[in-house]
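Intended use. Records like the one below are meant for learning the mapping from a protein sequence to its folded structure. Do not use them to infer anything beyond what is encoded.
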Amino acid sequence: MKARALESYVCCLFFLSAGCAITDYSPWPGHKTQGEAKLLFQEIAFTGIDPNLDGTYSYSVSYDHSNVPLGAFPGSITITSYHNNGGTITPSGTVLPPAFNPDGFADRLGSLNGEFGSFQFFPPWTPDQRWGKFFVSVDTDGDCQFFANVKQDFSGSPFGPGLALCFNAPTEETGEVVELEKFASLDNLLGRIWDGSLSNSFNMTVTAISFNGSEHAMTNPFTVAMKHTGFRPTTLAVNFTTASGKELLQSILSGTTDRAPTRLAMRFAGGLKINLPQSWQVAFNHAVLRKALGQ
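Structure written out for the chain above:
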C-alpha cells in the first residue's frame, strides 16, 4: 500500500460518515473479482445523521475485467454498501457501540450479507449486529454519475444516502484470503503502529476543512477516535450530535452545492493537510444534511 492510500483512507472516512453509498468505481485492469470483493479501509460508524442512516457501514465490489482491453470499462460494476445497527440510538436513548468486522481486514469474505459485526474490536469477539445490504449501485460507464447509479435502497430514508462517492481509480480489495503486505515503506503513522509505539486507540483532530479550495476553520475542532489492528488504522466512529459535529455538517452544507462533485481537503492538529485524491470525487445530499441539522 502506498502512502496515497493511507491519505485517501483518512480523508475519505470522515466523509463516508454522512450515510454514504459508494456509487462509482474503476476496476483493476485485467482483474475479475471472486464474487464480491470487500473494499479495505472503508468501514465507518456514525451517529446523529438520521435514524434511518446511522449505523456501521462496509463496502464491496463485483466485476469482470479479465477479457476487457486496457482502458475500457467492463460493462458494469456492482457496488454494495452494507450496514448494521452498531452506532444507532436505541429508543431508550442509548448509543450502541460500532459493530465492525472484528478481524479488521484479513480472511474476510467479500459478501457480508447475513454475517455479524462485533461491538468488541479486540478479542474475544462476540457476534452482535448482523450485516445487510443497504444501497446497491451499478456503474455502467466509468463516469461519476453519483446518486443516479443507486439502483436499490433498503435504508428506509426518504432522501437516500447522504453522500455519493466516485472512485475513478481502484482501491484495495479482498476476497476470501488476504496475504498481508510488508509495511516498511509507509509513513510515520503506520511506522508507529508497526513498532507498537502507537496505542491501539488514538485521536485525530480536524481543525479546518476545504471545499473546492475554500477553507473553513473549525471553531470547535472535530476530534475522532480511531483504532488499528496492529498493522493499519481500520475503523473510525463519528458522533454528529456534538457541537463540533454540527459545525462540520453545517460547513459542508454551506460550502458545497447539492449533489454536485466536490474537491475536499482537511487540515489536522499539528499541521498535517490531506487532500482527497484527484481520482476521487464526492457529492453531498443536502436534504440529508438539513434533516440532521434540524433545518
